[in-house]
Amino acid sequence: MNELQGKTAVITGAGSGIGAGIAQATAAAGMRVVVADIDTERAQSVADELSAGGAEAIAVQVDVSDLASVTALREQAYEAFNEVHLLCNNAGVWVGAMMADADIKDWQYQINVNLYGVIHGVKTFLPDMLARGEGHIVNTASLGGLISGPPEGLYCTTKFAIVGLSESLLMEVADKGVGVSVLCPGLVNTDLITQSEKVRPAAVDPGVRHDQPAPDVAAGLSPAVVGERVVDSVKDNNFYIITHDDYREVIEMRHAGILAAVDDHARRYGSTSGRTF
Ligand SMILES: NC(=O)c1ccc[n+]([C@@H]2O[C@H](COP(=O)([O-])OP(=O)(O)OC[C@H]3O[C@@H](n4cnc5c(N)ncnc54)[C@H](O)[C@@H]3O)[C@@H](O)[C@H]2O)c1
């Protein structure tokens, strides 16, 4: 979607951090912006800032883990701006427990927001884009969707799933006028760790924390820079949006390990290539 001027973006988790950075960058590109977040005050403050800068922006409260709430977000976006061209499924939380310690409610919180949040967005907004033959969906994964390690097991489970979902979605819609990108940042300087605690619903709170030391997000990239990369990538229709190169060797090692196992299989048991099962 190389022309963004006058089009509408819906960004979840836009009350803070990367989502707020994407909101600023899309507004700067001339888009009308729906700032969606579970934290109403923060969403309103970002929308007010965009409006003060001359953009058309509204704040909408949404809980992305709840399909009905995402359906209501779509209705409010259409009511305000008639169409949605860009959907950024960006809302996410961090649960940093080791898998051996994590309560099932830790898993549920992590998966309900990070993974179901993206699923609900795709389910709700994709049909209109396909019907119109135009649109773009950006799903926020992480470098933790390409490489993993403790204590990020719960988080990486959701982020690997988002990468897989996005790769499949790309193949499903690429020839139907709808673009797909998956955003995989390394550390970004946001409120991810504190905000994840603040907005955690009681229903998925076991009351006990087994948190390991959290990643030092304060040492990370500015969210504004990430927002600009997202806008560039939507215009260029890039699939992978990579904002850091410091883990290149680790990504290479992971892929080399997979390929080594494929080659080892062929050497020990013979090639299955061309065989019908
Ligand atoms: N900060 C990093 O280093 C980093 C790195 C890679 C990926 N990410 C991902 O970027 C995305 C944005 O995170 P961030 O770092 O900007 O953190 P952040 O906490 O600053 O922003 C996330 C926003 O999502 C909102 N949110 C949380 N649960 C929600 C829900 N159920 N419904 C709607 N909104 C909800 C929060 O209120 C918050 O405003 C997340 O998906 C995160 O996993 C962050």
TrEMBL record:
It comes from the Bacteria. One of its GO terms (cellular component) is membrane. InterPro entries: NAD(P)-bd_dom_sf, SDR_fam. Signal peptide: none annotated. GO terms for molecular function: oxidoreductase activity. Keywords: Oxidoreductase. Belongs to the short-chain dehydrogenases/reductases (SDR) family. This is Short-chain type dehydrogenase/reductase.
